[in-house]
């Protein structure tokens, strides 16, 4: 089985930082989950391929990335991951 891009441990750190997906005012298909959107975003960032991939809609993942950037989610996520890595003694100290 392929390794998950968003492990359960990573998801437990990230999930509280993400706003719930916005409901669609006119109904329609339910939005993809934040976990699927994050998986799509990380896949594109790691692989460098265009936004068309198999983790939900590429456009949806792009919009979620844009919205999370505008609301400061990425900054909070970065700080949270750095703190987690620091407590786990997983960061190199500056030389």
What is the compact description of this entry?
With 95 residues, this protein is mostly helical. Helix content is 52%, strand content 0%. The protein is globular and about 50 Å long.
Care to describe what's here?
The chain has 95 residues and is mostly helical. It has a domain at 33-89. The chain has helices spanning 8-14, 34-47, 58-70, 73-87. α2 crosses α3 (58-70). The termini are far apart. The mean pLDDT is 83.
**Mean of residue pLDDT values:** 83
Summing up helix and strand content along with how strands pair, one would put the structural category as mainly alpha
Low-confidence stretches: none
Helix run count: 4
Strand content: under 5%
Q: Write the H/E string, N to C.
A: HHHH
Taking the sheet with the most strands, its summary is: none
Distance between the termini: 39 Å
Oligomer type: single chain
Shape: globular
* Total number of beta strands: 0
Helix content: 40-55%
What's the topology here?
Blueprint: H1 8-14, H2 34-47, H3 58-70, H4 73-87
